[in-house]
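ok here's Pyridine nucleotide-disulfide oxidoreductase:
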Amino acid sequence: MAEQVDVVVIGMGPGGEHVAGRLAESGLSVVGVEAELVGGECPYWGCVPSKMMIRAGNLLAEARRVPGMAGAVRVEPDWAPVAGRIRDEATDDWNDQVAADRFTGKGGRLARGRGRLAGPGRVVVDGPGGGEFQARLGVVVATGTKPSVPPVPGLAEVPFWTNRDVVAAKEVPRSLTVLGGGAIGLELAQVLARFGTRVEVVEAMAGLLPSEEPEAGELLVKVLRRDGVVARTGARATGVRHHGDTFTVTLESGDDVTADRLLVATGRRVDLTDLGLETVGLDPGARALPVDGRLLAAPGLWGVGDVTGHGAFTHVAMYEAEIVVRAVLGEPGPAADYRALPRVTFTDPEVGAVGLTERQAREKGLRVRTGLAQVPASTRGWIHKAGNEGLVKLVEDVDRGVLVGATTIGPAGGEVMYGLAVAVQAGVPVEALRHMIYAYPTFHRGVEEALADLRSGDTPE
Ligand SMILES: Cc1cc2nc3c(=O)[nH]c(=O)nc-3n(C[C@H](O)[C@H](O)[C@H](O)COP(=O)(O)OP(=O)(O)OC[C@H]3O[C@@H](n4cnc5c(N)ncnc54)[C@H](O)[C@@H]3O)c2cc1C
Ligand SMILES: NC(=O)c1ccc[n+]([C@@H]2O[C@H](COP(=O)([O-])OP(=O)(O)OC[C@H]3O[C@@H](n4cnc5c(N)ncnc54)[C@H](O)[C@@H]3O)[C@@H](O)[C@H]2O)c1
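and the structure:
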């Protein structure tokens, strides 16, 4: 006999935990099903520990910028406090009791185990907290993603690292090859290089961070080189071997890239295969859970977070979670709107981005103008001097006279992006943005310069 409850949430990462917690707080009987740790990838192996690592790497980099600016320092990197913080402050040594208690403290019930659908509203949990539940109001699938491992010959047979191994490392490796020059690969490559690891990044596409503006990838190649990171772009791996303590990645060019460790950071994939989706008429072979603007995948079945394929970011998971909370509670509110989806890659300089890149805007058929401003040429960038690399790039839909995308790279690139996210989301006219006051001397004054460049910039096509 299945136990009757109001809602079952499968997967208690940032998305699932938010939905389950909010619904439990509102008085519903909610079962949260989790196969690993309550909190998901972000606090234990993703955002939080990686940003602690980045904070440490950035401190070293700032200290190294002292000569010529503020005197002399001796910098001796030590990974021990970073590994210690990750264990003690971020992950409780990968123990989720605090998160589990937070959920049950809101009135939720945690079922530890692997959940799968067994028909509309029905969820079977295999594991220590197992059982069968029938949800009166609905089921929420928030099962996240796994590392995507490309079919490079030999790769599956070698003991490569994923983000989880880097986060858990008690010592940094002497050398590291990073397969994939996206967000994970670059953030981790830069940190480890700053702690003394010899790092090479192998990126198959023509530039680093290929989903962002090409200017971002070009700039990152230069700044990473200064950290000692070799970035090989347009580099296709044709084979991987592991002999003794050495990983060898052979490239199409014939070059071999060798290192003590190999990190695979070639994207994340949604795995719907074992979720019983066929029992509710959905395709378990789909690339992502197909949901509508209210995150509904089927009657009484919602999707939240990475699994929906709208952007593998914690803020997307939380945003979608809130929409599902409203839907389940029958509260009014807008449908999901991804026009101003913000991204921040926390390299130094940070790469902030929102909305469409120039290429995406042109592919949508928009008439586009772009404006560019260089951070080192701005007053604040010039004052900042060491570590001042960056730029602001704006993408305007000429016919509507509004920004549809922006990229803000610089020492506070992620923060500078926020104002532009508001402009994209609210469709603030470019004309109005031009007649605002931008505080002097901030990094965000680069926005004003990039707006001026729009006026004098590319001729509309
Ligand atoms: C190294 C790294 C750094 C990152 N940095 C950032 C960042 O700075 N900013 C940012 O916004 N995002 C970042 N991300 C992405 C972010 O971690 C994810 O977008 C976020 O965790 C997605 O949340 P989610 O709830 O959709 O899924 P997840 O966090 O993946 O959680 C899904 C949960 O579901 C559980 N689960 C799966 N299947 C089942 C099942 N059948 N039954 C029960 N439980 C199941 C899993 O065990 C997991 O706990 C980073 C990711 C990585 C890997
Ligand atoms: N700061 C953040 O918000 C942050 C940080 C880390 C991760 N994330 C999230 O996690 C997701 C996954 O990160 P990721 O870096 O693994 O994925 P990604 O999709 O951002 O980058 C993967 C990179 O690997 C490259 N690649 C794919 N196959 C390859 C191959 N065979 N050889 C060489 N290169 C190959 C791709 O061209 C791409 O540049 C991100 O897209 C992002 O949504 C966010």
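+1. Residues 456-461 have pLDDT under 50 and may be disordered.
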